[in-house]
Design goal:
The chain has 528 residues and is mainly beta. The protein folds into 4 domains: 115 residues, no CATH class; 125 residues, lipopolysaccharide transport protein A fold (Sandwich); 112 residues, no CATH class; 125 residues, Beta Barrel (Porin). 7% of the residues lie in helices and 62% in strands. The chain has 4 helices and 31 strands. It has a 17-stranded antiparallel beta sheet that branches. β10 and β11 form a beta hairpin. The longest helix is centred in the N-terminal third of the chain and has 16 residues. The model has no long low-confidence stretch (mean pLDDT 88).
């Protein structure tokens, strides 16, 4: 915000006025001065020249044209404070612009970008008293300070430049929840007395740190507290005179894992977390197994604006089996040019690996890996996918395990009137295996639908159409081909009743009737 401090204006001739303007810019409390030349035009006074003034000696109140220029300068300040580029431009001559810019066009292009930053902070309070000499604001009653990093609430506060001292205060923002008897905020540092900190919302705090005093640094991501205790739920589990707690991702050592099993013996692992960039990280976990030897594991995670990826791989040179063993698991998804893609899966070196090194997955009979590419429109969608299964229950039968390579599906629902639409869907898949019969199967349906009303109001929906199913088995002698048709019709109607016994008893009764008629096709010899 700009506050007018001084104005001196003097006519140069009948059509020009020289003005020196000084104003304070809040909240930085800095003094700015400019030299303006106003010219008389057919539509009124306009600014012809605008340049910064560095000689404060020229600034004093007075001048014979002060009464003429003062209302114009106030309009100039108002347009700036309201971030109104058009109102500000209207005060300048057609080709005039501040001297800091090369042209009027460059000035107009820069204004939206400059004003888009908005105010650095906004203070709300029941009462606020500004002391211009001390440059402080004393506020009380339901105080709220909104800043880019978060929001500070308090009962009382004193603001001086970029320092805020608040009583009975709380800070919330960026995943941080801090409450203290007193908070002193300077830049990105918050110093608290008798504080409570957690990364969980106030009503769902699984854990928290309570301390006599401490400092939360939002920029570095550390909480340093003295006279602290760590609580899980309502139970304190650790008392310490000093604690340094990370509040965001930092490279370092994680909690080690250890245990004992009959197949691995005693084992201990030390996860090493690496966070080199905000959009990806890695966890390296070397693990010593008393009976099997060293195992290495790597987990990579990446988060981009249009994609998220996770990749985990493990490997061990097994001293018991004298061969390399491991597993790889991945999960990825994202968008590209309006298309959505997904890929997830797991591959293990042998059928016994999960039972020995990942017992929580030992019950899996198959591991599944799949990929899918899809796109949706207002009245339809299409998807292409593939699925591969690894047979862990019977590895010797892997060559005869059925795979879906590939599958294609699509559907649409297009309105042709106020209450009528035509809908259809199709699905085709190729069942593939290295040994044994293979098959292709395709299904499609087309229906005409009518809908009147919407639930919970009375509604009626009618549809009739037909299915077409076809398949082929090979290699067969001769190759088996078949196709069937199956007409169908449905009627769906319903009504929802509420408030039958007044507002004191909350209730809802839904009545629905559904009738379907279809001819079941003969598919005894069809593939799945």
């Amino acid at each position: 915000q700009r506050v007018l401090a001084h104005l001196f204006a003097e006519p140069l001739d009948d059509t020009r006025i020289l003005a020196f303007v000084a104003f304070f810019a809040e909240p930085a409390h800095t003094l700015h001065a400019r030299r303006l030349i106003w010219i008389r035009t057919e539509t009124g006074w306009r600014i012809a020249e605008d340049a910064p003034l560095h000689r404060e000696a020229a600034m004093f109140d007075g001048g014979s044209a002060r009464g003429t220029v003062l209302p114009l300068v106030r309009r100039w300040l108002k347009a700036w404070n309201l971030r109104d580029a058009q109102a500000l431009a209207d005060l300048y001559a057609p080709d005039a612009h501040p001297s800091e810019y090369a042209s009027r066009r460059a000035w107009m292009e820069a204004l939206p970008q400059q004003w888009a930053r908005g105010a650095r902070e906004t203070l709300y309070a029941n009462e606020a008293v500004l002391d211009p000499r001390a440059r402080t604001i004393t506020a009380s009653g339901h105080i709220r300070v909104e800043a880019p990093q978060g929001t500070l609430t308090a009962a009382r506060a004193v603001v001086q430049k970029d320092t805020i001292t608040a009583e009975d205060a709380a800070w919330r923002g960026g995943g941080h929840f801090l409450r203290a008897q007193r908070i002193r905020r300077q830049g990105t540092r918050l110093e608290g007395k008798q504080l409570r900190y957690s990364s969980c919302p106030p009503n769902e705090q699984t854990w928290r740190v309570e301390a006599r005093e401490g400092t939360l640094d939002l920029e570095s991501g550390w909480l340093v507290a003295r006279g602290a205790r760590f609580l899980v739920g309502p139970v304190p589990v650790l008392y310490t005179p000093w604690i340094k707690q990370a509040t965001r991702r930092h490279s370092g050592l994680l909690i080690p894992n250890f245990g004992q099993s009959s197949r691995r013996g005693w084992f201990v692992g030390m996860p090493i977390y690496l966070a080199p960039a905000p959009d990806w990280d890695a966890t390296l976990t070397p693990t010593w197994n008393a009976r099997r030897g060293w195992m290495g594991a790597v987990e990579l995670r990446a988060a981009q604006p249009h994609a998220q990826e996770t990749l985990t791989t493990e490997y061990i040179r097994d001293r018991l089996t004298h061969r390399g063993r491991g597993q790889t698991h991945w999960a990825m998804q994202g968008t590209w040019g309006g298309w959505q893609w997904q890929s997830q899966g797991r591959y293990v070196s042998d059928a016994d690996y999960l039972g020995e090194f990942a017992p929580e997955l030992a019950s899996l009979a198959y591991t599944t890996s799949e990929v899918r590419l899809s796109r949706s429109w207002a009245h339809g969608s299409v998807a292409l996918g593939a699925r591969y299964q690894q047979n862990l229950a019977a590895p010797s039968l892997q060559k005869s395990t059925l795979q879906l390579l590939p599958s294609l599906e699509g559907r649409f629902d297009a309105p042709i009137g106020a209450h009528v639409s035509v809908a259809g869907e199709a699905f085709a898949v190729r069942f593939w295996r290295r040994q044994g019969l293979r098959a292709e199967r395709a299904t499609s349906s087309l229906s005409l639908r009518a809908a009147f009303g919407e639930a919970p109001s009375p509604y009626l929906r009618i549809a009739f159409g037909g299915h077409l199913i076809g398949w082929r088995l090979h290699p067969a002698s001769p190759a088996l081909r078949a196709g069937v048709q199956a007409p169908f019709a449905t009627l769906d109607t319903g009504l929802t009743l509420a408030g039958l016994w007044g507002a004191r008893l909350r209730h809802e009764i839904a009545l629905r009737g559904f009738i379907a008629a279809a001819r079941a096709p003969e598919q005894t010899r069809a593939p799945l």
